[in-house]
Amino acid sequence: YTPIFAGYVSYALTTYVSIERCLCVSKPFTVKALFTPRFTLSAVAMISIVVFGAYVVMYFISEVAFVFAPNLNTTVAIYRYNSFFYANQAIVMVYYKYAAILLPFASFTVLCLCSATTVYKLRKSSRLLLKDNKESTRNSEISRKIKSGISLREKLVVKMLLAVVLVNIGNLFPRIVFYVAQLIEPEFYLLRRYHNIFYSVAVWLFVLDFLKASVNFFLFLSMGSLFRMKFYDMFGNGGKLGKI
After folding, report:
1. pLDDT at position 53, please?
2. Angstrom distance (rounded) from CA 210 to CA 3
3. With contact defined as beta carbons under 8 Å apart, do 99 and 176 qualify?
4. From the CB of residue 8, how many other CB atoms can be counted at a distance below 10 Å?
5. Is the Cβ–Cβ distance between 55 and 5 less than 8 Å?
6. pLDDT of residue 50
7. CA–CA distance, 164 with 217 (Å, rounded to integer)
8. Radius of gyration over alpha carbons of the chain, in Å?
9. What backbone torsions phi and psi does residue 185 show, to the nearest 5 degrees?
């Protein structure tokens, strides 16, 4: 369960970053005063604890038991549901399946809304800035340069936000289908009728999770100038790594 829950935490943290970026564009002075390093650290810790804690009950539904296997004539360890699961499965499993759909989907929805708002605010501020720089020939030249710089910034921001959204869609959509299938067919789960199919699909979803985690790093490294600069400062001998 740990890779799955870590993925849900990743969705929530990505959403938090998108909210922060959106507020940076909409209310920059307020954000600068509010989003201090201490506040950000506290928010990240709180989000991680709350999201991970929402699923921690799943760690208590199974156990490892040692039973005698007649065909092997020895004691073996098996994985099975425990008494807590059988006493509460009607509540726990329904809660988990709905929570596994709703929380990531809510995070993704907020991510899309904040990304769209960020793009809109950037373009709106660009138009206002260009409007104020169309008074004289000299100012027109300045306006042209500003427009070029803003257009480049807009393209980079839009490109990065679109890439983040697409990566999350590619990772989240198969998982939502996976959990909807469990709601439709209760036997599609571990240690039940369709155990093997469930396990095979789950492994592929784990692969998607690891790919998403890897892609995010290279995504921010290639498109985030501040992230790239800090990364090279920390691991690239003062930025020399980026010049090799």
Report:
1. 92
2. 9
3. no
4. 20
5. yes
6. 92
7. 11
8. 24
9. -120, 100
CA angle 24, 28, 31 (to 5 degrees): 75
Q: Report d(CA 228, CA 220) in Å as an integer.
A: 7
Which sign, positive or negative, has the C-alpha torsion 38, 41, 47, 49? negative
| 196 exposure class (CB count in 10 Å sphere: 0-12, 13-18, 19+) | exposed
Alpha carbons within 13 A on the beta-carbon side of 46: 7
Packing angle, helices 137-184 and 195-223, rounded to 10: 170
Contact 146, 176 (CB under 8 A): no
DSSP track, 176-224: HHHHHHHHH-TTSSTTSTTHHHHHHHHHHHHHHHHHHHHHHHHHHHHH-
- 3-state secondary structure at position 136: coil
What is the model's pLDDT at position 131? 61
Whose CA is closest to 216, among 113, 111, 114, 117? 111
Q: Name the region of 73 (left: φ>0; alpha: ψ -120 to 50; beta: rest).
A: left
Per-block mean pLDDT, blocks of 10 residues, the chain (244 long): 82 84 79 82 92 90 86 85 87 85 84 82 68 51 51 67 78 83 83 86 86 80 76 66 42
Burial (CB < 10 A; 0-12, 13-18, 19+), residue 4, is middle
Closest CA relative to residue 121, chosen from 37, 31, 43: 31
Cβ proximity of 9 and 48 under 8 Å: yes
Q: What is the pLDDT of residue 79?
A: 81
Token output for 215 = 């892609």
